[in-house]
Amino acid sequence: MDDMPDVDDSTEPAEVRRFWSRLGLPGLIDVHTHFMPERVLHKVWEYFDGLGPLTGGVEWPITYRREEAERAALLREFGVRAFTAMLYPHKAGMAQWLNSWAVDFARRTPDCLHTATLFPEPGVEAYVREAVEAGARVFKAHVQVGAYDPGDQLLDPAWGLLAEAGIPIVIHCGSGPAPGKHTGPEPIARLLARHPRLRLVVAHMGMPEYADFLELAERYGEVRLDTTMAFTDFSERLAPFPREALPRLADLGDRVLLGSDFPNIPYPYLHQLHALERLGLGDDWLRAVCHDNAARLFADAGRAAGSPPVI
C-alpha cells in the first residue's frame, strides 16, 4: 500500500474543484457514497480493519474516517452537488430499520439523494413501497454482503415495483473484491430476463467480471454501471480492467456514472477522478460520467416520483 497516493486535506478540495471546473461542469454527482447509522458504519470500518474475508483479505485503510457532518461537508467542499447514502443489510429484519434512518438523514441532508435498501424477507414489498412513497430516489442492493440470490422469489414483487417506478438500484453484484455465493453476471442476467426495465446500476463496473456486465448493459437499455474504485491503482493491481474493452466503455458513455465508495476508500477521492481521466476517453465522456448522466437519470426518476431535480 506504500505506493497509494497520499491525501492532502489542505489542497484536495481545490484540486477536485479544478478537475470539474476544467470540464465546464457545475460540480459532480456521486452515486456511490456511504452514509448510514454511525454504529453500523463503525462496524463496517472494523470489518475492513480486520481484513475480513469479503475484502479479499487486502489491507484497506479508510481514508476519510471522520464524523458524519465532516464527511458531508467535505463532499460539498469537493463540489459534489448530489450524493447517496449507500446503506445495506446483512441479514433479515434490518432493511426497514435502515430505511427509517435514511428518511431522517435525507430530511437533514438535502443534497443527499434519499436512499433505501431491501432484503429477501417477508414484507419486503410493503417496506419498499413505503420507502418509495416516502420519496426514495435510489436503492442499494448488496448481493455479496447480503449473501442472497437477487432472483429470490421474495424479492420479485419489490423488483416489479421498482421497475414500474423507474427508481435506480445501485447493486453490488460482481465478484470483487471477493466472490459471494450469488455474485457474478448469471444471477443478474436471470433477474433482467424477468424484469428487463429494472434500472440497475452495477457497482464497481461489475469488477472483476467487467466484460460480462458490459454485455448486460449493451443488451438492456436501462442497465448502467458506476465507476466505484474501478481503474484506480488499488483496483488495477487486484482486478485490472481489460484494455480491449475500452471502446465498449466509450460506446456506453451515456450509461456510466461516477461512483467513489467515499469514505471507505484506501486512497484520496481525487485519485478516482484522475483514474477516469487517464483512460483517455475524452472530455465529453468525462462530463457525461461525472455529472450529466446522473443528472438526467435522477431528473427522469424524480419526475416520475414528483420530486425536484438533483441540481
The secondary-structure element order is HEHHEHEEHEHHEHEHEHHEHH
Report the mean per-residue pLDDT as an integer.
95
Distance between the termini: 37 Å
Q: Report strand order across the widest sheet.
A: 4-5-6-7-8-9
Structural class: alpha/beta
How much of the residues is beta strand, in percent?
A: 5-15%
Question: How many individual helices?
Answer: 13
Count of β-strands: 9
Rg value: 18 Å
Largest sheet report: 6 strands, parallel
Unreliable spans: none
Broad shape? globular
Could you estimate the helical fraction of the residues in percent?
Answer: 40-55%
Please tag this protein with its features:
311 residues, alpha/beta, 6-stranded parallel β-sheet, 13 helices, 9 strands
Describe the structure.
44% of the residues lie in helices and 9% in strands. The protein has helices at residues 12-22, 38-49, 68-78, 95-108, 124-133, 143-146, 156-165, 185-194, 210-219, 233-238, 246-251, 269-277, 283-305; strands spanning 28-29, 80-84, 112-113, 115-117, 138-142, 169-172, 200-202, 224-226, 256-257. The strands form 2 sheets. A 6-stranded parallel sheet has the order 4-5-6-7-8-9.
Sequence-ordered SSE layout with sheet pairings:
Elements: H1 12-22, E1 28-29, H2 38-49, H3 68-78, E2 80-84, H4 95-108, E3 112-113, E4 115-117, H5 124-133, E5 138-142, H6 143-146, H7 156-165, E6 169-172, H8 185-194, E7 200-202, H9 210-219, E8 224-226, H10 233-238, H11 246-251, E9 256-257, H12 269-277, H13 283-305
Helix pairs in contact: 4-5, 5-7
